[in-house]
Amino acid sequence: MRELTVVGLDVDGKHIICESVGGADERADMFRLRIDDRLRSTVRGEGSRVGQTTIEMGGTMLRPKDIQSRIRAGASVEQVAAAAGVDVSRVERFAHPVLLERSRAAELAAAAHPVLSDGPAVPTLLEVITSALMARGLSPDQSSWDAWRNEDGRWTVQLAWKAGRSDNVAHFRFAPGAHGGTVTAADDAAMELIDPDFDRPLRPVAAVAELDFEEPIAPAVPDEEPVRRRSTPRARRSKPSVPGWEDVLLGVRSTGTGSAGQG
């Protein structure tokens, strides 16, 4: 590693001019060092030491401790690398021990006892989940576990499994303690998995009500068919007979029968 000495401040006021230290026969090389926040913090003793690589993320310098905090809180290596705009390999070496910590927390939670309404169950969470999935015709081998630490310091455990073409997840709260610790359901899917009545489906389908279709009631038929009355044309009304003039003069009104009466 070559040693440099400070010559002075550049004319632009933004760089420091340095030169290499060599022997009498060696030509001194000149260097320009930009004055930025990293240099200022290093001069104040706040910068990272050699081996403490930092990653610039949106104008903020991420130390290995910051990267590990994000991974421990549930972020993936790909998410941190994408947010920082760097290659995944620059994050993996810091994330690896934290990923092992998360995997270990998930194993401990699977060996803990789920808390039911009447207290912790005797079987472990893994045993209860395995029975629940098999009772629903699902394979426990297609499930996966993960865990991350919340801001309050407690662990959240996630179980992911496939049912047909759908991806499902359930979340639990893990509390380490004696006899393996306990886990409590954090959502409805987790509650249904640790429910003692796990033989019912996760999403029961309501039975279709049977509709009672009644046949139309036929009209009652009497023993004897009623005799239909024959329609007869109405008798034409006879027009009143008009008396002749001689009857009017004599005061006689015709009765229509040929007889006459006197007035």
In short:
Among the domains are: 1-35, no CATH class; 111-193, no CATH class.
Describe the protein.
- The protein is an alpha+beta fold.
- Among the domains are: 1-35, no CATH class; 111-193, no CATH class.
- The chain has helices at 37-43, 64-72, 77-84, 89-110, 125-135, 188-193, 245-250, and strands at residues 4-9, 15-20, 30-34, 55-57, 60-62, 113-116, 119-120, 144-149, 155-163, 166-175, 182-185.
- Strands 7-6-11-10-9-8 form a six-stranded mixed sheet.
- Strand 10 and strand 11 form a beta hairpin.
- It is elongated, with a radius of gyration of 51 Å.
- It starts with a strand and ends in a 13-residue tail after the last helix.
- Residues 202-209 and 254-263 have low confidence and may be disordered.
